[in-house]
Amino acid sequence: MKNFSLRAGRFLTLALLLVGLGLSSCKKDDTTTVQGNWVGATAFSTFPGVTRTGSVSFVINGIAYVGTGNDVSSNRLKDFYAFNPAQGTQGSWTQVTPMPAAAAARYLAAAFSANGKGYVGTGYDQTGNYLSDMWQFDPNGSTPVTGGTSTIGAWTRVRDFPLTTTGTGRRGAVAGNVGNFGYMGCGFGGNYENDMYRYDPSANTWTNVGFAGNKRVNASTFTIGNVLYLGLGTNNGSIDTQFWAYDASGGATTGTWTRKNNLANVSNSTTSYDYSAVARTQAVAFTVGNYGFVTVGNSGSNLLTCYSYDPSNDSWTLRNPFLGASRSGAVGFGIGDFGYLGLGNSGTTNYDDFWKFAPDASQD
Questions:
Q1: CB atoms inside a 10 Å sphere around CB 330
Q2: In CA terms, which of 2, 226, 264, 306 is 20 to 30 Å from 278?
Q3: Helices (H), 54-110
Q4: If DSSP codes are grouped into helix, strand and coil, which group holds residue 162?
């Protein structure tokens, strides 16, 4: 009996030691340094237009253009503003030509840049009509106004975006660009859609390139190299967890879709921990360097968490959370070594703040 008790005691000691080592290992993983520095600088923290949500943005030659959306009284908007991060110590905002009278003010539109110009379209207007018209913005043009002056930029209507399977326009479509081509699809026009079209600005044509994933609205995209990444959003009331990559290097007819790892809460120190999906809708996505970033959005409640995607190993890494108010319906874009995020809403509150994100810095 004495020998049995001794062996049992030794076994218990060994078990406790192993548990302690396991807990120590978990603690080490949990305290791994998380990167990313969010800064709300005075010079660009306040958007010059009214507070809004569901707006669009696109970038041309290092300058971001932001406009449209819904104000706090649910009025649709069509004004636009340019942000130049290289002007002044923290960048500056300049109002540019609003969308023309022939273009309805709109909410939950989609936008992309291609071949040196911006493209804005779809969404829904003040009376709730789903739109399919598309408009090109030339930042080098100008538009005369009363009094003999002119505003920066000129708008031209281009070929409408293809109608849905039920013959309507759509809202909450997703858009991005690869090289000199724009890509746009999904959204909602009475039904959820899972299509994707390539726009050729030189020919003013849309080509159906298909989409292999689920139907969805209010999804997110970013581009790394020749690959467009698309995921998240809502599908028939449920937040979709899928993430897909479209390799556009083969052109309009031979591009391929590949399923990628879902956006998931994965430990920074190992890929062995996958606690739960953290998919979301109406999130912000942008590219800095060779990484894609996804942050804010809604998953039953508004979120602050931020993740980066590394295409070299198809993995997601937790970054420091957004420091502003949690929100959905915001806009974001990457310029140079930084990401930018602003606008959006939380409940009945709209925002006009803008934030700058340095991916490789520690949070101040």
A1: 28
A2: 226
A3: none
A4: coil
For the stretch 299-340, pLDDT in tens is: 999 999 999 999 999 999 889 999 999 999 999 999 999 999
* Structure token pair of residue 300: 């039953």
Q: Is 271 helix (H, G, I), strand (E, B) or coil?
A: coil
Give the per-residue pLDDT at 45: 64
Six-digit token string for 156: 């031209």
Residue 224 lies in domain = 35-358
- What six digits make up the tokens of 183? 């890509």
Handedness of CA 343, 169, 64, 235 (dihedral sign): positive
Residues 179, 226: contact at Cβ < 8 Å? yes
Q: Where are the alpha helices (DSSP H) in the chain?
A: 2-30
- The amino acid that residue 40 corresponds to is G
Instruction: Specify whether the CB–CB gap between 297 and 233 falls below 8 A.
Output: no
Alpha carbon of 3 to those of 7, 9, 319: distances in Å?
6, 10, 53
Q: What is the DSSP letter of 55?
A: -
CA distances from 15 to 3, 6, 88, 305 (A): 18, 14, 62, 37
Q: CB burial class (10 A; 0-12, 13-18, 19+) of residue 271?
A: middle
Report if residue 22 sits inside a domain. Answer: no
In a domain, 4, yes or no: no
pLDDT in tens, 253-294: 678 999 999 887 555 544 444 444 578 999 999 999 999 999
Edge-to-edge strands, sheet with 256-260: 220-224, 227-231, 243-247, 256-260
Q: Which two tokens stand for residue 291?
A: 């990484």
Q: pLDDT tens digit string along 4-35?
A: 343 444 433 434 333 333 333 333 344 457 88
Q: Would you give the DSSP letter of residue 1? A: -
User: What does R_g of the chain's alpha carbons equal in angstroms?
Assistant: 23
Domain assignment present for 7:
no
Would residue 3 count as lying in a domain? no
Residue 208 sits in a domain of what CATH number? Answer: 2.120.10.80
349 token code pair: 């509150």
Three-state SS for 248? helix
Number of domains, the chain:
1
Q: Which two tokens stand for residue 22?
A: 């396991």
Which residue type occupies 226? Answer: N
